[in-house]
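Input sequence (269 aa), recorded before submission:
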Amino acid sequence: MHPRSVVFSLAYGTILLATPAFALTTQAPGHVSDAEVLRLLREVYREKATLQGDWPAAAIANDSEEIAPTSRKVCADSGAGSTGPRRVAVCTSFADGGHAQSGEVDLFLMLDPRGAQTQARIGASERGIESGGWGTPGEVRFFEIGPGRAAFVLTSGYANMGWATENVSLHHAESDRFVKMLTVSTHLSNTGACDPAEDRTCRKQSISLDCTLRTDKHRYHHGFYDLVVKVTGERGGKKVARSIPIPFANGVYRAPAEALRRDGCDEGF
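Predicted structure, token format:
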């Protein structure tokens, strides 16, 4: 009898139940190498993509009024050292773009080979996200939204008639698609419209606020942290320091629009 077999004695005989020779295990996550990233990017763009520095964009404008892209670069990369999916962002710039001409950002979730697969593949992508100004995308970085979960953060800013604002948007993918999780303003000021130090009326209406988005790791729901906006600065000559919670519920972040407009940086202009 096999030493790992189990014997059940019954009145009318004996039944042998052999245990399996090995237990089913989940395959450990692998890595997406730099070579695989380059292969996938070159397949997507049909250009000589690189992981460091800019490369020339081969795309052309579709009509005379459209500005053609001039260069691209990898502007965010979770790196070959990370296990499991690799997150890569590519920023596209446009020459001769005016203030209102944004750059573009493409987001990719590249999946490591599993099972019989021998090559990495693109599991999710989001293309042509407008960001920045003067033909150049804004900053792209990563933001932890849960244990082992990172979202892309895209930054954009705008200024007009002495007012200035900045916002960030969170984009996250787990498998086959990206979802915009949240957009929130992170700066608001009108100090370029007048000098609050010399104009009393201006001082009463002046705004200079920074709204920093942070995780609240004390509040955790279904693998996602709650978020909080930390507001600092001055409004109407008075110091401001407050927090605005953004809870995660039913699969989305519930941004309190009225509180962000009244107490944060979402007032707009």
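Checked by second reader. Confidence is low (pLDDT under 50) at residues 1-24.
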